[in-house]
């Protein structure tokens, strides 16, 4: 039995590695995601209480793994409640239904652009966090204690979920990326929007002060680059990049305000050996020519749009997924759901450079008919086979990713201490212990950096 699972895991690994190597895989890989909230509801557990206690959550995730034919580990991202409560979060709030949502608050005033441009991370630490998390808006000693408790709470949940994930990946033979090769980031413009200025604030800034918006995007770019590059970059890993505001802008504003730092970030990540998995929220059809210019084998996950047009314009250079409307799984018959999967396979699978996923993940249990969900994935797994797996013509590339001429300015802040800085401040450290101490202390610095940006 264990040998069969290992064999399945190796086959799944080969599917994705062939895809990312530019070869035609044995069949279309499947990469779907079931959010933690969905898994808890499916198991019949109380949503809010379970997210706090984690009692029964392993069994819930196990049950969810049994309803999917995904090749990739299907359990999705979750927000953790304890550190948010400790911080008095206004940025993420658990409602009465048990869902943690972003209510659309902003942490930066329009008059503070210059301060943000001078050093984004310093401004976030000094101004933005105390506004979004009021328990930090206090005296230095209390603030330190609050942050220490929040740090412990956050990484307790991280560690628990990581152990559960590892167990289920081995139990069911799911594929997952190389260790420490996943990142997550937003475009500089979206970062300004999401937690700093908010939708209304950024809309006013675009009209009244577009030059400051441009300067702010450029200023925060090094921070986003640092966020986006994981500890071990890999072409088999990815940095998830959801696109929020691009489709709400006029074409001229997109070209001037959004695209320059977005494209530069993706290119710099690719230059570091880290491809992006870009979630094109809403309809990006009017920007396909822009997306084409991104580095070869950038992965695009589309919510809405014309799959035929995307295959024609992007399908030879980039990797495509998405388009399957999740609403079908709730409103259509099982046969209609299967027919839709067949339609998309016929359009997107030929020539490779495609993996199957839905246009979004089912957050609530009532957003899908689970039997339809299972039927669609089973159909794709059984009918997404290629006639000539292993062919490399999909990788016979005419596309060269030219290195950027300007090296990006490195991230820096008085609140982020590299080992080199620490060593200068503590010259008494014994040389023989240096490698051990350096690795350990830098790991804690990176953990704090990670947590800060999970809050923003």
Brief synopsis:
By secondary structure, this protein is an alpha/beta fold. It has 18 helices and seven strands.
Q: Give the amount of beta strand, in percent.
A: 5-15%
Instruction: Give the overall average pLDDT.
Output: 95
The end-to-end distance, rounded to whole angstroms, is 44 Å
In what order do the strands lie side by side in the largest sheet?
Answer: 3-4-5-6-7
Low-confidence stretches: none
What structural class should be given to the helix and strand makeup?
alpha/beta
How many structural domains can be distinguished in the coordinates?
Answer: 3
Total of DSSP H or I helical runs spanning 4+ residues = 18
Radius of gyration: 23 Å
- Biggest sheet layout: 5 strands, parallel
Look at the structure and give the CATH class of the largest domain: Alpha Beta
């Amino acid at each position: 039995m264990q040998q069969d699972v290992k064999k399945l895991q190796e086959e799944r690994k080969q599917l994705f590695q062939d895809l990312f190597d530019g070869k035609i895989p044995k069949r279309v890989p499947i990469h779907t995601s079931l959010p933690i909230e969905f898994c808890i509801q499916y198991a019949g557990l109380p949503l809010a209480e379970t997210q706090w206690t984690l009692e029964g959550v392993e069994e819930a995730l196990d049950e969810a793994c049994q309803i999917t034919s995904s090749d990739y580990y299907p359990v999705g991202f979750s927000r953790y409640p304890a550190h948010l409560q400790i911080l008095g979060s206004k940025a993420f709030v658990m409602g009465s239904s048990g869902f943690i949502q972003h209510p659309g608050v902003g942490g930066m005033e329009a008059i503070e652009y210059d301060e943000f441009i001078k050093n984004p991370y310093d401004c976030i630490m000094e101004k933005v966090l105390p506004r979004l998390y009021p328990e930090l808006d206090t005296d230095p000693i209390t603030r330190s204690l609050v942050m220490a408790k929040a740090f412990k709470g956050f990484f307790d949940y991280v560690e628990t979920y990581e152990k559960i994930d590892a167990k289920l990946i081995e139990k069911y033979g799911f594929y997952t990326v190389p260790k420490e090769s996943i990142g997550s980031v937003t475009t500089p413009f979206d970062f300004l929007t999401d937690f700093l200025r908010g939708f209304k604030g950024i809309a006013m800034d675009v009209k009244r002060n577009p030059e400051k918006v441009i300067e702010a995007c450029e200023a925060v770019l090094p921070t986003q680059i640092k966020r986006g590059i994981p500890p071990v970059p890999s072409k088999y890993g990815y940095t998830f990049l959801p696109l929020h505001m691009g489709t709400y802008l006029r074409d001229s504003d997109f070209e001037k305000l959004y695209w320059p730092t977005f494209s530069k970030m993706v290119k710099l990540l690719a230059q570091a050996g880290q491809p992006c998995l870009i979630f094109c929220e809403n309809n990006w059809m009017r920007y396909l020519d822009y997306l084409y210019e991104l580095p070869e084998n950038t992965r695009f996950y589309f919510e809405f749009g014309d799959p035929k047009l995307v295959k024609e314009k992007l399908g030879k250079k980039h990797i495509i997924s998405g388009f399957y409307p999740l609403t079908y799984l709730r409103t259509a018959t099982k046969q209609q759901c299967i027919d839709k999967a067949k339609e998309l396979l016929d359009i997107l699978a030929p020539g490779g450079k495609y993996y199957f996923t839905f246009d979004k993940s089912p957050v609530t249990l009532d957003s899908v008919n689970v039997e339809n969900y299972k039927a669609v994935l089973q159909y794709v797994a059984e009918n997404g086979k290629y006639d000539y797996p292993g062919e490399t013509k999909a990788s016979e590339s005419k596309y060269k990713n030219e290195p950027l001429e300007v090296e990006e300015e490195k991230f820096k802040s008085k609140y982020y201490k590299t080992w080199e800085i620490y060593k200068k401040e503590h010259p008494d450290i014994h040389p023989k212990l240096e490698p051990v101490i350096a690795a350990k202390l830098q790991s804690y610095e990176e953990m704090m950096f990670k947590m800060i940006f999970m809050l923003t």
